[in-house]
Design goal:
This protein has 14 helices and 17 strands. The protein is of the alpha/beta class and 439 residues long. A hairpin with an 8-residue loop joins strand 5 and strand 6. The protein binds iron/sulfur cluster (2 copies). The site of one iron/sulfur cluster has 15 residues, from helix 13 and helix 14.
Length: 439
């Protein structure tokens, strides 16, 4: 009898994954951009404070933006060169940020080496190193990692959970990382184990990545590590940390709470890899793996790209388009952001760039709600999207918030199943924004 795969409880969807465009393509270095546009706001929390001026020379990996407090993150130069200007830009999310524009010049002479004796470092030193090198959550949320790893008195970490789910269609960056950098990912996990001292370490990977599961299991056995790899049923949004914890440890994070409230800390595979580089190679977070893919792209790729590389450069490096793109999206198709400008830079949270076809991007005719309840059944967070949407439409934000609007993770499941094509997620985003504004 086949083993029943674990998954989360209510709701969720199973969209076509479109991963075959890029899941067999090895990671390769993207070209160094002639000009890197490095935002000072690439993370949740306060923007980094600019430490450079136009005309300054910067080295690769040099600190150019300093976190003003704990709820922020340092920013480093991703290429060597000269600061051309500091300007305001729009990020993929539509938010504005100041950005340091560096013109590529000179040599690569980054400090750091591959021989750091991290096993001699205590948890405080490791945490400081992670803070100094600007590590944030690489799954898209960009939550400053040191805060996640700062545990509370009386709140021991039972579980350290590594998120290797990558449930968004099209994206294959984490898949390739688990496959090609297996040893380094596991070293990153061992570094975090030293900080958190968890009772159990689990890696959750969806069953549609059997080669990654096998590679991890083989390396774990080879190194005799105390890490369990758990194959999960393929289902969206299993990569959300609340759903992942439900699937892996059967516990529910309370509304408004954190995983630590149920004894868990969750980090993405990309984050533990960045921790490996930060600690074992003394390398700040200046590049990341980005899947660049889609049905109208000539040669999809998984790039290791410098932070600040304009999205348009990566699309060109893929050979451009084979058809007319209907939409360019940063992130996955469920939670990503449509881009109006190819000059938008890759940031720490950019997991993918998608070139969708016209058919996939076509606006569909919206019709009135038929009260079918499909959106309610699909919401993994137990919300009633149709009711929330009606309140938001009527500008009754307080009502929507008291019905759980702030628990909405903007996963897109409700909009995906709605037969009336009501823009439910866009409504939730607007409602949350207005609700916050009105306090
Ligand atoms: S977008 Fe929000 S309301 Fe819709 S299914 Fe996801 S969490 Fe529920
Ligand atoms: S899925 Fe769409 S049509 Fe059905 S109840 Fe929800 S909003 Fe209305």
């Amino acid at each position: 009898m086949a083993l029943k795969l674990r998954t989360f409880g209510r709701g969720g969807v199973h969209p076509h994954d479109f991963k075959s465009f890029s899941n067999d393509i090895p990671i390769r270095n993207a070209a160094i951009p002639p000009e890197a546009v490095i935002p000072l706001q690439q993370h949740m929390g306060a923007p980094a404070e600019c430490l450079v001026e136009p005309g300054d020379e910067v080295r690769e990996g040099m600190l150019i933006g300093k976190a003003p407090g704990v709820f922020s993150a340092n920013v480093h130069a991703s290429i060597p060169g000269k600061v051309k200007e500091i300007r305001d830009i729009y990020l993929a999310t539509g938010m504005r940020s100041k950005a340091v524009v560096v013109e590529f010049e000179g040599e690569f002479e980054r400090g750091g080496n591959g021989d750091v004796q991290w096993r001699d470092m205590d948890s405080k030193e490791l945490l400081e190193t992670i803070r100094d090198r600007g590590i944030v959550g690489m799954g898209g949320a960009t939550f400053p990692t040191p805060i996640k790893f700062t545990t509370r008195e009386g709140n021991p970490v039972e579980y350290f959970v590594i998120n290797g789910v990558e449930c968004e269609p099209f994206l294959t960056a984490d898949h390739r990382l688990m496959l090609e950098k297996t040893e380094q990912v596991l070293t990153g996990i061992e570094i975090v184990r030293r900080i958190l001292s968890p009772r159990l370490v689990l890696i959750g990977v969806e069953e549609n990545k059997p080669d990654a599961i096998e590679a991890l299991q083989e390396q774990i056995a080879l190194e005799n590590l105390d890490i369990e790899v758990v194959a999960l049923k393929t289902r969206y949004p299993q990569g959300d940390e609340k759903q992942l914890l439900k699937a892996l440890i059967g516990r529910e994070v309370p509304s408004g709470g954190l995983p630590l409230d149920i004894g868990a800390v969750v980090s993405n595979v990309g984050t533990v890899y960045a921790i490996y580089e930060a600690v074992a190679l003394a390398k700040p977070l200046i590049e990341r793996i980005v899947t660049v893919t889609g049905p109208v792209l000539k040669n999809p790729a998984n790039f290791k790209a410098r932070i600040g590389t304009p999205v348009g450069n990566l699309l060109e490096e893929c050979g451009g388009f084979s058809g007319v793109p209907g939409k360019i999206v940063a992130g996955g198709p469920m939670m990503g952001f449509a881009l109006a400008d190819p000059g938008v830079p890759v940031v720490k949270g950019t997991s993918g760039i998608l070139a969708l076809s016209e058919r996939q991007s076509r606006a569909v005719l919206q019709t009135p709600c038929i009260g079918c309840g499909r959106c309610i059944a699909a919401c993994p967070f137990g919300l009633s999207p149709t009711i929330l949407y009606k309140w938001i439409e009527h500008r009754e934000y307080a009502e929507a918030m008291s019905a759980g609007l702030m628990d909405c993770k903007e996963c897109g499941c409700c909009g995906y199943v709605c037969p009336a094509r009501i823009p439910l997620v866009q409504g939730m985003k607007l409602g949350k924004l207005m609700g916050r504004k009105k306090g």
